[in-house]
Amino acid sequence: MDLSAADLLERLVAFPSVVGSPNDELMAFVADYLAAHDVPYTLLQGPEGDRSNLFATIGDASRPGYILSGHVDVVPAQEPEWQGDPFVMRRVDGRMIGRGSCDMKGYVAAVLAAVPALRRMTLSAPIHIALSYDEEAGCRGVPHMLAALPDLCAAPLGCIVGEPTGMVPVLAHKGKSALRLTAEGRGGHSSRPDLGSNAIHSLLPALEAAVAQAAALQTGPQDDRFAPPYSTLQVGTIRGGQAINIIPETAVAEIEARAIAGVDPKALLEPVRSVLGADVRADWLSCYPALALEADHPLVGLVEGISGNTSLGAVSFGTEAGLFQKAGVPAIICGPGDIARAHRPEEYLTEAELAAAGEMILALGRFLSA
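-> structure tokens emitted (370 positions)
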């Protein structure tokens, strides 16, 4: 069952594994592929019951090794600008077009395509494959896999997260937290506001606090590796009300914060939480820490060597790498493609980019076989 990376990517794109939806069919395909190559794996079902992480090992799991980490969920693909079915990969002029091709099923395909060659190598340390779900909702799947990691393998030496960085190793990214605020009021005719309770009005103190906090962060702690060089906060969505002459009985706002390294993402939202009234409920949607790998860490030199590229200090988007680091696993980001193509119609990965990812993975195998 040897398949090329491009063929594997085509198969993976065909699974509409949109964030927040079941991924059983995709994971079953990967599991069957690994089983056909005698690679032991574990499916780790999440608490949702309809989606799983997968962890597999090539080599001796009792020895410290390296993790290749990627997520298999994708963002929705409802934009009208798609020129074909986003879940049917198209090959046009060296581009492989489809939802998730760049972010980040291309990296996953490159990892899987390398499995037969890695199996033939005599590895001094194992190479683990870690596939997670719901990364696009704030890395919700990875924590469940990390909780099981001590039972799956010896403490890893490092983790390479294959988000699209143009195959440039990245040492740091911002952390993130997200909060949903739900206000419950009492509806009625707008001519008698004294008989109702306006849910939108109940959100205003929190929204004002969010705007003030966003402004204050601009002059807070700075880290010039990031753009912008400070932590940020924004109100991303707000919904409420039916008509101008009806008192809104429900209103919902979603607020996110992105934290530079060394700043607690949840703490950034405390000024918002502190002004909530009794009629407003706050629910955490997601939270993951920033990544900050030291420039002289051995993992940096290793990934620079196998990728052939000099490392970059930081990016502003987030990944599961911060969670791996928090769990005690040194982590770095390096994968094919350009993040500017992610979450956009006609998302694509080039054949050359896919080949470069495959070569990096085989170079890791050769390094461990030397």
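The radius of gyration is 22 Å.
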